[in-house]
Specification:
CATH architecture: Orthogonal Bundle
Number of helices: 8
Order of helices and strands: HHEEEHHHHHH
Distance between the termini: 8 Å
Shape: globular
Number of domains: 1
Structural class: mainly alpha
Oligomer: single chain
Low-confidence stretches: 109-123
Length: 187
Amino acid sequence: MTGAGGDRVREQAERILADVPAWLWDGERLPVPVEDIVDSCFGLHVRDVEDMSAAPGAPAVDGGQQLSGLLLPARGEIWVNADEARRWPPRRRFTIGHELGHWVLHRTGQESLFCRRTTVQEARAVVADIEEEASQFAAELLMPRWLLVREHAACNGDIDALCARFASSRAAMERRVGQLLVGEPPR
C-alpha cells in the first residue's frame, strides 16, 4: 500500500511503537513484543482458539479455507487460530499485529461498514482495502523500518537471519524487504 493511505498506516504503527513504555520495550530489542503491546497498551486479550467458527459473528468461510484470526472489539479480544499458531508461530505474531491494526485503524468504522447497503462489488473492494491496511500495519509494527534497515545491513541481507531476528515468516519478510529496501511495489 502506497500513497496517503500507506503513510497514515505507517505513521499509526510508528506512533504506537514510540508510545510503548520503556519497561515493556526499549525500541531496539527484537523481536517486537506484539502480544505484550496488545495486552499492556491496549488491554486486549489474545486467545488461541481451536474452533474459530465459535466466535460471535464469525464469518462463514468456504470449504478448505480457515480464519487465522478475529478481532472481537466488544469483548476486547483477539482470537487466533490455535492449530495454525502451533504450526507457524511467526504467522501467529503477524495475525495478532493484523488484528491490532483493525483495532487501531478500523474499529469505529467497521460497524457501519457492515450495516450500510452497498453492491457486492463495492463491499469486496472495501474489505480488501481494510485487510491490506491491517496487514501493512502488522508489517510496520513487527518489522519497523529503522530496525529492518539496521538489521538488514548487519546480516548482509540474509533473509533467514532477518526472519530469525524478527520472528517473521519468510513470505512476510521478503515482502517487507522488497517494499523498503529493494523498491518493489507491494503485492
